[in-house]
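quick one before i forget lol
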Amino acid sequence: MICPSLPQAYYFKFSLDMAAAIRIDRCEHVWAEVINVRGDSFTRTEKALWDAGYGSIALELKRVSSDKMQWEQYARDTFLAHAAVIPESKLRFLQYVDNSNRDWWKEREPKGAVLL
C-alpha cells in the first residue's frame, strides 16, 4: 500500500520510486491514497515534517489542505501518476468523492479509482 501519499514536486517520479520500492511485479494489487484528515493529523504531520527538516513538503501540505480545488488537484495528480506506472488491473486508488468531483473520478474507475 502506498499510503499516505503526500503532495509531491514530481508525482511521476514518486510513483516510479514507490513502484520499485514495493516491487509491483510481485503484488496482486497496489492500494494507494492521499493523506486523510483524521482529527489533528494535518497539524501533527506538518509539525513532524518541519521537525525532520522537510519544510518544503510541510508548506506544500499546508497549501493543498487550505483550498478544496488545490486538494482535488493533488489527489488527481497522485492518481494520474500511479495510473501511468501501475497496471490498471493492480491499482486500487481510494478516493473520497462528492457531487463536485464524482464524475471525474467515476470515469477513472476502469483505471483503478475506487470511489468512497
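fyi Strands lie at 2-5, 30-34, 91-95, 113-115.
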